Amino acid sequence: MTETGSGGGRRLATILFADVAGYSRLMRADEERTFGDLRALLAELVVPAVERFHGRIVKTLGDGVLAEFGSAVEAVRCAVELQRGMAERNAGQPADRRQSFRIGLHLGDVIVSDQDVFGDTVNVASRLQALAEPGAIVLSASVHEQVRDKLSLPFRDLGARPLKNIDRPVRAYALDDGAAPLRAGRRRGLAAGIAAALLLIAAGGAFFLLHRAEAPSGGTAASPSTQPAFSVAVLLFTNQSGDAEQDYFAEGLTEDVTRSLGRFRPLTVIAYGAVLPYRGKQLPPMEMGRALNARFLVGGSVCRIGDRVRVTVQLTDAANGTQLWAEQYDDRLTDIFEVQDRVARRVAGTLATNLQQIALQQSLRKPTANLDAYDLLLRARAQANEGTRAGNRMAREALQRVARMEPTYADAQAELADATLQRAVYGWSEFADEDVDTAIELASKALEIDRDCVLAHSVLARSYTIRQRYDLGLAESERALQINPSDADVLATRAAVLLWTGDVAGSIASGELAMRLNGNLGPEAAFNLGIAYLLSRRFGDAVKLLEAARIRFPAYPTLDFPLAGAYAELGRDAEAAEALEQGKRKNPYLDLAGFGTRFQDPALKRRLDQTLRKAGFN
How far apart are CA 194 and CA 183, in angstroms? Predict the structure, then answer.
């Protein structure tokens, strides 16, 4: 490595590129004031921070800053310090004067000439900055490798991303909400300091406008074909308990709902810290939406009465002030933080389900000739959820089109894997074994693009269980649950894996929660829960569930069989015979020996066989 002065040479350096988001808009609104704000920002925050972390400002580029560091660790610490400083400065500023940094970091060889730096490393840092959302930090794998074991920060893998004018994809990582490490401390008993800790988190760790629903991994950051349609802000829940000491519960619930909702990839969730300045402000929904750059607003209240807590939640369309959805949750207070987590997961799961349904409805209203990849994926998902052979075929054809349009769109690969597995499971394929193999291949490809693609993990969990590779199935379902414990489809997958591996009680708990979060789950979830009810001798629950599922999915080929068994156990023999006859018409080649063969424990299959024999199935 050659150290250089003004003459020229090369050296290894970490390059930090920071750019003020929306600077042109701010300049158009008030040129002199914006320029003065930027000069103050550079003098009071940027220069001191870079010097404090032993870096060097190479140059300023209008509203951007290029800095060089000898240490990747110091460069990342400086980036975090800059975002924290920006959050603190913005907290006291009106919305039309707030400036937010986007920051990119890359480590590599640079050319030095007359104290300026050039080369591919600088270009990559600049392109990574363009990937970042306002208030966020994006770093390359070369920087991440140097800092991941030295800094306790919540890095999120964005996968390999193609960058403009860079001839190879670059693996990128984002720094998400810095609140997570502090929340762990709160759970260890810091209840007395919760309110202050949350304020500290907001000022110090919340990188504004977290873009949880980034463009498909490997695609461009704002590709018009894949950009999600919805941004959501979770406003601070109000404490209606009449006890100011309960404010921490309302604030903690707000934070948890924000984080849980942010795990749903199709949604863009405004960071908790960006909402804090609006605490207690009674703005009309349209004005609040404009201030936070959010299409939808989530509001709510918390009321603690004795040993119970009641949480009320509303979803509002900020564009027109219309309330779209409301729900109430009641829970018993045992461990207050456990209740907070449980309620947050339920709120986030039902909210996400409703928001994604709104996305689908808007997509279906668009002219079919103008579909882009994301809308086409939504339509394909709706077709697959019909639970029919024709719907499945159309879904697979549409998803194959999406995959051709966006070959590095992980969600498209995962959805295609899911539809392919559906064809095998529902009995619509002459080559079911090959379809399961194809589903595994497609899901694995999705995970190569994005290792946190939750649907891909879910498809692998179900596929491996069908293949009777139970340990792999459990591991994949656990990984999906870690990524998003509020996702109804993930919970339904977990219920399926637990059923076939023998944990019937656990399967029922997971399946029932999935149904509560999303009453529109497909027939496979109802089928699995119905089987679990039969094995638990909850025959009335099985009838209620399976009757409703059969009405919604009349073409699904196997719902009739467990329903017939439940009828028979309840002594409703005529209904059992009728259900069995319907099942045989839909699936004439299914016999008792082939039913329930996925069970790891043969005793469970024998118990199910006994119930089905009562209905006349043999």
Answer: 9
C-beta of residue 119 within 8 angstroms of C-beta of residue 109: yes
Does domain 1-175 fall under CATH 3.30.70.1230? My reply is yes
DSSP per-residue string spanning 54-79: TEEEEEEETTEEEEEES-HHHHHHHH
1-175 shares its CATH topology with 207-365: no
Going by DSSP bridges, is the β-strand pair 64-69/100-113 parallel, antiparallel, or unpaired?
unpaired
Assess contact for 182 and 194: CB atoms under 8 A.
Answer: no
d(CA 492, CA 430): 26
Q: How far apart are the first and last CA of the chain?
A: 77
For domain 207-365, say whether CATH 3.40.50.10070 is its number. yes
For the chain, the residue count is 618
Select the highest-mean-pLDDT range: 12-21, 38-47, 196-205, 257-266.
12-21
Domain coordinates of the chain in residue numbers? 1-175, 207-365
Measured distance CA(455)–CA(421) in Å, rounded: 12
User: CA–CA separation, 214 vs 125, rounded Å?
Assistant: 18
Rounded mean pLDDT of 64-72?
A: 90
pTM over the 0.85 mark: no
pLDDT in tens, 345-370: 777 777 776 666 666 555 554 544 44
Cβ-based burial of 587 (10 A; exposed 0-12, middle 13-18, buried ≥19):
middle
Per-residue pLDDT tens digits for 400-442: 998 888 888 888 999 999 999 999 888 788 888 999 999 999 9
> SS3 for 21?
strand
- Which three-class secondary structure state does DSSP give residue 367? coil
Q: Collapsing DSSP states into helix, strand and coil, what is residue 276?
A: helix
Taking every pair of Cα atoms in the chain, the longest distance, rounded to a whole number of angstroms, is: 94
